[in-house]
Amino acid sequence: MRRQRLERVLGRCRTDEIQVLLIKSTMRSLLVYDRVNGPQGCLGEGYAPSTLFIWGKPTMRRLVIAGFLALSVQACSSMKASDAGSKPDDHPDAVAGEPASAQQAPPAAPSSSKPLPPPQPAPPATISAPATGASSTPPVSTGNSPSPAKAKPPIASRPATPPGAAPSARPAVAQSKLQSSSTPSPTPPSAAISQPTSPAPATSPAPASSPPPQSLPSLNLHDLEQRLRDTHAIGVFAKLSLKNQVDDLLSAFREIYRVANRRPPKELRQRYDLLMLKVLSLLQDSDPPLASAIASSREAIWGILADPDKFSKI
Amino acid sequence: MALRISAASLTIAALLLGAPVFADDAGLGKDLKATIALQGLPCDQIATTKQNGDSDYTATCKDGNSYHIFVNAQGRVIVQKL
Predict the structure, then answer these.
(1) Considering only CB atoms, which chain B residues are within 8 Å of A71?
(2) CB-nearest partner of A63 from B12, B22, B30
(3) A196 to chain B, minimum CA–CA distance in Å?
(4) Rounded to whole angstroms, how far apart are CA atoms A204 and A198?
(5) CA atoms within 13 A on the CB side of A238
(6) Contact between chains at B12 and A241 (C-beta distance less than 8 A)
(7) Is A158 left (phi over 0), alpha (psi -120 to 50) or beta?
(8) Taking the CA of residue A291 as centre, how many other CA atoms within 13 Å lie in the half-sphere pointing to its CB?
(9) Does ipTM surpass 0.85 in this model?
(10) Which tens digits make up the pLDDT trace of B25-64?
(11) What is the rounded (10 degree) CA torsion for A106, A92, A294, A270?
(12) Which pTM was predicted?
């Protein structure tokens, strides 16, 4: 009976989401822990962050062992999270690869532990590349483009939860992230797109240089802003501090455009780049999809800021 | 026997309830460290934090730097080196 219940619950989980610790080799004692999503993970809302499935006689020794194992698992997970946040210097690419947003995307993608299709989309050049016949690329829309790491393929293939059972209790935010990241799926990178056009090698460089004007529509500022608000990768103090700095930068732009409709000075571009780097360094370890999305939208956002007409419509 | 089992249950409950507290501390330290870094101030790792009030903390870094981090009346995050 308990075994069936356990198997039913585990059927909703992916193997990399949960941690099953075999306490006794006779398969009589198991500790199941959803290390990714905690209480709202695939185990369902009714299960605590650490859920013990123990069958057999609940002896004192077994319970104590299970308790210590649960503690050690939680301690390890929290330490891992703090370690990840404490060493952003491990990714010098994010700092060094300043101008090329596409260059920043690849380091973000490998940091996620899931097997992914080749990384980042996309900036402008690949997005506006001519449609490649009946290829599997969906119509590309926009700012949610990146975040391929959130599109967890195994979730789609996860067996449907039984109608009676509580469905996965992921928060609505997570669901929306999944939808926004999985629907556009511009994952086919430039290489994949340029393959069909390879028969005409002489013309292949041309489409790469044409598209910059069409890159701006790919920006979804509101979506990015909402994702920044919702992300757990940045704490409250840091978010407030970032908001202060963004407001300061916008005030500087307003001041310039109030005096005269002129192009912003280089100093503002440097401030903008610095702010972007700060955001990316905060996000790249804990929320790589959002970091990729912001990195790929970097030039498009600057295009809005640097244009007085577009800026006035923000 | 029942007494032993209940003692074990209490132990486990205490351990499981205590773990999120540690996680919160780690999250706060990470947040404060990011805030300090956003102001361009050095802090390799947060060693201790002390809450002085609502949205008001004193953080000590392992490299010896101490900072007063708080939100002022205008809603700005202020980081003062102590």
Answers:
(1) 15-16, 18-19
(2) B12
(3) 45
(4) 7
(5) 28
(6) no
(7) beta
(8) 32
(9) no
(10) 778 888 899 999 998 899 999 999 999 988 899 999 999 9
(11) -140
(12) 0.43
